[in-house]
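S1.2 Input.
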Amino acid sequence: MSAGTPPRAPTLLGSIVLGGASCIFTVNFTHPIELVKTRMQVSGDGLATVIGATFRNEGVGAFWKGIVWAWGREGSYASIKLGAYGPVRDAIGAGGKDAPFYLKFAAGALTGGVGSIIGNPFDVLKTIAQANKGKSVGLATLVGNMYHDQGISGFYRGATANVLRACVLNATKMGCYDISKGYVADLSGWKRNDPRTVFASGVVAGFFMTCTVSPFDRVRTALMNQPTDRKIYKGFIDCFFVTIQEQGVFSLWRGFVPIWARFAPTATIQLLTIEALYQMCGYKTL
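S1.3 Output.
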Protein backbone atom coordinates (compact mmCIF):
# COMPACT_ATOMS: atom_id res chain seq x y z
CA MET A 1 0.00 0.00 0.00
CA SER A 2 1.49 3.33 -1.03
CA ALA A 3 1.95 6.14 1.48
CA GLY A 4 -1.14 8.23 1.90
CA THR A 5 -3.48 5.59 0.49
CA PRO A 6 -6.23 4.87 3.01
CA PRO A 7 -6.63 1.22 3.97
CA ARG A 8 -9.53 -0.55 2.30
CA ALA A 9 -12.08 -2.87 3.84
CA PRO A 10 -11.11 -6.54 3.41
CA THR A 11 -13.26 -8.77 1.23
CA LEU A 12 -15.08 -11.61 2.96
CA LEU A 13 -13.02 -14.32 1.25
CA GLY A 14 -9.74 -12.48 1.71
CA SER A 15 -10.45 -11.91 5.38
CA ILE A 16 -11.36 -15.58 5.91
CA VAL A 17 -8.06 -16.66 4.31
CA LEU A 18 -6.09 -14.34 6.58
CA GLY A 19 -8.12 -15.51 9.57
CA GLY A 20 -7.30 -19.13 8.74
CA ALA A 21 -3.60 -18.37 8.42
CA SER A 22 -3.63 -16.62 11.80
CA CYS A 23 -5.43 -19.51 13.51
CA ILE A 24 -3.32 -22.30 12.01
CA PHE A 25 -0.16 -20.43 13.03
CA THR A 26 -1.44 -19.95 16.59
CA VAL A 27 -2.64 -23.50 17.27
CA ASN A 28 0.89 -24.91 16.98
CA PHE A 29 1.75 -23.06 20.20
CA THR A 30 -1.50 -23.59 22.12
CA HIS A 31 -2.35 -27.20 21.23
CA PRO A 32 -0.58 -28.72 24.28
CA ILE A 33 -2.73 -26.57 26.59
CA GLU A 34 -5.86 -27.75 24.76
CA LEU A 35 -4.79 -31.37 25.18
CA VAL A 36 -4.27 -30.97 28.93
CA LYS A 37 -7.65 -29.24 29.27
CA THR A 38 -9.41 -32.03 27.36
CA ARG A 39 -7.84 -34.75 29.49
CA MET A 40 -8.71 -32.92 32.70
CA GLN A 41 -12.34 -32.72 31.61
CA VAL A 42 -12.48 -36.38 30.60
CA SER A 43 -10.58 -37.87 33.57
CA GLY A 44 -11.42 -35.48 36.37
CA ASP A 45 -7.74 -35.35 37.35
CA GLY A 46 -5.94 -32.15 38.34
CA LEU A 47 -3.61 -30.05 36.20
CA ALA A 48 -0.33 -31.35 37.63
CA THR A 49 -1.53 -34.98 37.52
CA VAL A 50 -2.50 -34.80 33.86
CA ILE A 51 0.70 -33.06 32.77
CA GLY A 52 2.89 -35.45 34.78
CA ALA A 53 1.11 -38.61 33.61
CA THR A 54 1.11 -37.54 29.98
CA PHE A 55 4.82 -36.71 30.00
CA ARG A 56 5.78 -39.81 31.98
CA ASN A 57 3.70 -42.34 30.04
CA GLU A 58 3.66 -40.92 26.52
CA GLY A 59 6.51 -38.46 26.19
CA VAL A 60 6.70 -34.85 25.04
CA GLY A 61 5.24 -35.58 21.60
CA ALA A 62 1.94 -36.64 23.17
CA PHE A 63 1.12 -33.01 23.91
CA TRP A 64 0.65 -32.52 20.17
CA LYS A 65 -1.65 -35.52 19.67
CA GLY A 66 -4.42 -34.60 17.26
CA ILE A 67 -2.55 -31.60 15.82
CA VAL A 68 -3.50 -32.57 12.26
CA TRP A 69 -7.19 -32.41 13.16
CA ALA A 70 -6.52 -29.13 14.95
CA TRP A 71 -5.08 -27.70 11.71
CA GLY A 72 -8.23 -28.80 9.89
CA ARG A 73 -10.41 -27.24 12.58
CA GLU A 74 -8.54 -23.95 12.51
CA GLY A 75 -8.58 -23.86 8.71
CA SER A 76 -12.35 -24.34 8.62
CA TYR A 77 -14.17 -23.25 11.77
CA ALA A 78 -11.65 -20.77 13.16
CA SER A 79 -10.93 -19.12 9.82
CA ILE A 80 -14.61 -18.18 9.54
CA LYS A 81 -15.18 -17.16 13.16
CA LEU A 82 -12.15 -14.84 13.11
CA GLY A 83 -11.79 -13.87 9.46
CA ALA A 84 -15.45 -13.29 8.66
CA TYR A 85 -16.13 -11.18 11.75
CA GLY A 86 -14.93 -7.85 10.34
CA PRO A 87 -16.87 -8.01 7.04
CA VAL A 88 -20.02 -9.34 8.75
CA ARG A 89 -19.79 -6.72 11.51
CA ASP A 90 -19.51 -3.96 8.92
CA ALA A 91 -22.33 -5.44 6.84
CA ILE A 92 -24.81 -5.25 9.75
CA GLY A 93 -23.77 -1.71 10.65
CA ALA A 94 -21.67 -2.50 13.71
CA GLY A 95 -18.32 -1.25 12.41
CA GLY A 96 -18.49 2.22 13.93
CA LYS A 97 -16.85 3.14 17.22
CA ASP A 98 -20.21 3.94 18.79
CA ALA A 99 -22.10 0.99 17.29
CA PRO A 100 -24.30 -0.90 19.81
CA PHE A 101 -22.43 -3.66 21.62
CA TYR A 102 -25.18 -6.19 20.89
CA LEU A 103 -24.55 -5.86 17.15
CA LYS A 104 -20.87 -6.65 17.65
CA PHE A 105 -21.84 -9.66 19.75
CA ALA A 106 -24.36 -10.70 17.08
CA ALA A 107 -21.67 -10.60 14.38
CA GLY A 108 -19.40 -12.76 16.53
CA ALA A 109 -22.17 -15.24 17.31
CA LEU A 110 -23.15 -15.55 13.64
CA THR A 111 -19.64 -16.18 12.33
CA GLY A 112 -18.85 -18.51 15.22
CA GLY A 113 -21.99 -20.58 14.71
CA VAL A 114 -21.51 -20.95 10.95
CA GLY A 115 -17.86 -21.85 11.37
CA SER A 116 -18.58 -24.49 14.01
CA ILE A 117 -21.01 -26.34 11.74
CA ILE A 118 -18.36 -26.59 9.04
CA GLY A 119 -15.56 -27.53 11.42
CA ASN A 120 -17.44 -30.01 13.67
CA PRO A 121 -15.97 -33.20 12.11
CA PHE A 122 -12.44 -31.94 12.78
CA ASP A 123 -13.43 -31.04 16.34
CA VAL A 124 -14.78 -34.54 17.00
CA LEU A 125 -11.67 -36.29 15.66
CA LYS A 126 -9.35 -33.87 17.46
CA THR A 127 -11.09 -34.47 20.80
CA ILE A 128 -10.91 -38.27 20.42
CA ALA A 129 -7.24 -38.11 19.42
CA GLN A 130 -6.37 -35.86 22.37
CA ALA A 131 -8.23 -37.99 24.94
CA ASN A 132 -6.54 -41.19 23.71
CA LYS A 133 -3.77 -42.09 26.17
CA GLY A 134 -2.56 -45.12 24.26
CA LYS A 135 -0.75 -45.45 20.96
CA SER A 136 -1.73 -42.79 18.47
CA VAL A 137 -4.43 -43.91 16.02
CA GLY A 138 -3.76 -43.24 12.35
CA LEU A 139 -5.87 -40.71 10.45
CA ALA A 140 -7.43 -43.26 8.11
CA THR A 141 -8.18 -45.66 11.00
CA LEU A 142 -9.82 -42.99 13.14
CA VAL A 143 -12.00 -41.76 10.28
CA GLY A 144 -12.80 -45.31 9.18
CA ASN A 145 -13.82 -46.43 12.66
CA MET A 146 -16.09 -43.45 13.12
CA TYR A 147 -17.78 -43.89 9.75
CA HIS A 148 -18.17 -47.66 10.21
CA ASP A 149 -19.70 -47.36 13.69
CA GLN A 150 -21.89 -44.27 13.34
CA GLY A 151 -21.86 -43.11 9.73
CA ILE A 152 -21.76 -39.46 8.73
CA SER A 153 -23.78 -38.49 11.82
CA GLY A 154 -20.87 -39.59 14.01
CA PHE A 155 -18.81 -36.69 12.73
CA TYR A 156 -21.52 -34.31 13.94
CA ARG A 157 -21.86 -35.71 17.46
CA GLY A 158 -21.97 -32.84 19.92
CA ALA A 159 -22.90 -30.41 17.12
CA THR A 160 -25.57 -28.67 19.19
CA ALA A 161 -23.18 -28.06 22.07
CA ASN A 162 -20.47 -27.04 19.63
CA VAL A 163 -22.64 -24.48 17.85
CA LEU A 164 -23.88 -23.02 21.15
CA ARG A 165 -20.31 -22.92 22.45
CA ALA A 166 -19.05 -21.27 19.27
CA CYS A 167 -21.78 -18.63 19.32
CA VAL A 168 -21.08 -17.74 22.96
CA LEU A 169 -17.30 -17.95 22.51
CA ASN A 170 -17.02 -15.83 19.40
CA ALA A 171 -19.64 -13.30 20.54
CA THR A 172 -17.69 -12.84 23.77
CA LYS A 173 -14.27 -12.91 22.13
CA MET A 174 -14.86 -10.57 19.22
CA GLY A 175 -17.42 -8.37 20.98
CA CYS A 176 -15.27 -7.84 24.07
CA TYR A 177 -12.15 -7.41 21.95
CA ASP A 178 -13.79 -4.85 19.69
CA ILE A 179 -15.21 -2.87 22.62
CA SER A 180 -12.03 -3.20 24.71
CA LYS A 181 -9.92 -1.73 21.91
CA GLY A 182 -11.90 1.48 22.16
CA TYR A 183 -11.49 1.72 25.92
CA VAL A 184 -7.79 0.79 25.86
CA ALA A 185 -7.07 3.29 23.07
CA ASP A 186 -8.93 6.08 24.88
CA LEU A 187 -7.31 5.43 28.26
CA SER A 188 -3.77 4.83 27.00
CA GLY A 189 -3.58 7.17 24.04
CA TRP A 190 -2.40 4.29 21.84
CA LYS A 191 -3.87 3.80 18.37
CA ARG A 192 -6.43 1.03 17.84
CA ASN A 193 -4.01 -0.90 15.62
CA ASP A 194 -1.09 -0.50 18.06
CA PRO A 195 0.18 -3.98 19.09
CA ARG A 196 -0.07 -2.91 22.74
CA THR A 197 -3.77 -2.12 22.27
CA VAL A 198 -4.34 -5.43 20.49
CA PHE A 199 -2.48 -7.37 23.20
CA ALA A 200 -4.30 -5.77 26.13
CA SER A 201 -7.70 -6.14 24.46
CA GLY A 202 -6.96 -9.79 23.61
CA VAL A 203 -6.14 -10.59 27.24
CA VAL A 204 -9.40 -9.00 28.42
CA ALA A 205 -11.38 -10.92 25.80
CA GLY A 206 -9.65 -14.18 26.80
CA PHE A 207 -10.74 -13.86 30.43
CA PHE A 208 -14.40 -13.21 29.65
CA MET A 209 -14.38 -16.01 27.06
CA THR A 210 -13.31 -18.47 29.75
CA CYS A 211 -16.08 -17.38 32.12
CA THR A 212 -18.86 -17.75 29.56
CA VAL A 213 -17.65 -20.73 27.52
CA SER A 214 -16.40 -23.22 30.14
CA PRO A 215 -19.80 -24.96 30.73
CA PHE A 216 -20.39 -25.37 26.98
CA ASP A 217 -16.82 -26.60 26.52
CA ARG A 218 -17.25 -29.19 29.29
CA VAL A 219 -20.46 -30.61 27.75
CA ARG A 220 -19.03 -30.54 24.24
CA THR A 221 -15.95 -32.50 25.32
CA ALA A 222 -18.09 -35.16 27.03
CA LEU A 223 -20.32 -35.55 23.95
CA MET A 224 -17.48 -35.70 21.47
CA ASN A 225 -15.40 -38.13 23.53
CA GLN A 226 -18.08 -40.86 23.58
CA PRO A 227 -16.89 -44.21 22.14
CA THR A 228 -17.29 -44.49 18.38
CA ASP A 229 -19.43 -47.64 18.74
CA ARG A 230 -22.02 -46.34 21.26
CA LYS A 231 -23.59 -43.23 22.74
CA ILE A 232 -23.51 -42.45 26.46
CA TYR A 233 -25.67 -39.33 26.29
CA LYS A 234 -28.88 -38.62 24.39
CA GLY A 235 -27.82 -35.08 23.54
CA PHE A 236 -26.76 -31.71 24.88
CA ILE A 237 -29.48 -31.32 27.54
CA ASP A 238 -29.07 -34.90 28.79
CA CYS A 239 -25.29 -34.53 29.04
CA PHE A 240 -25.65 -31.18 30.80
CA PHE A 241 -27.92 -32.51 33.54
CA VAL A 242 -26.13 -35.85 33.93
CA THR A 243 -22.86 -33.98 34.43
CA ILE A 244 -24.40 -31.78 37.13
CA GLN A 245 -26.11 -34.73 38.86
CA GLU A 246 -23.00 -36.91 38.92
CA GLN A 247 -20.26 -34.33 39.42
CA GLY A 248 -21.88 -31.13 40.65
CA VAL A 249 -22.48 -27.71 39.12
CA PHE A 250 -18.90 -26.54 39.51
CA SER A 251 -17.67 -29.46 37.40
CA LEU A 252 -18.91 -27.43 34.42
CA TRP A 253 -15.93 -25.15 35.04
CA ARG A 254 -13.48 -28.04 35.41
CA GLY A 255 -10.30 -27.18 33.57
CA PHE A 256 -10.89 -23.43 34.02
CA VAL A 257 -7.19 -22.67 34.49
CA PRO A 258 -5.96 -24.47 31.35
CA ILE A 259 -8.93 -23.10 29.39
CA TRP A 260 -7.97 -19.58 30.44
CA ALA A 261 -4.29 -20.38 29.85
CA ARG A 262 -5.28 -21.41 26.32
CA PHE A 263 -7.87 -18.73 25.54
CA ALA A 264 -5.78 -15.73 26.63
CA PRO A 265 -2.69 -16.50 24.49
CA THR A 266 -4.80 -17.96 21.67
CA ALA A 267 -6.96 -14.87 21.38
CA THR A 268 -3.96 -12.57 21.72
CA ILE A 269 -1.73 -14.34 19.16
CA GLN A 270 -4.60 -14.79 16.69
CA LEU A 271 -5.62 -11.14 16.93
CA LEU A 272 -2.07 -9.81 16.78
CA THR A 273 -1.40 -11.97 13.72
CA ILE A 274 -4.55 -11.12 11.78
CA GLU A 275 -4.21 -7.40 12.54
CA ALA A 276 -0.60 -7.53 11.25
CA LEU A 277 -1.72 -9.41 8.12
CA TYR A 278 -4.49 -6.87 7.53
CA GLN A 279 -1.93 -4.05 7.60
CA MET A 280 0.49 -5.95 5.33
CA CYS A 281 -2.30 -6.45 2.78
CA GLY A 282 -3.46 -2.85 2.96
CA TYR A 283 -6.70 -3.64 4.77
CA LYS A 284 -8.15 -1.61 7.62
CA THR A 285 -7.81 -3.30 10.98
CA LEU A 286 -10.64 -4.36 13.28
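S1.4 Remarks. The mean pLDDT is 89.
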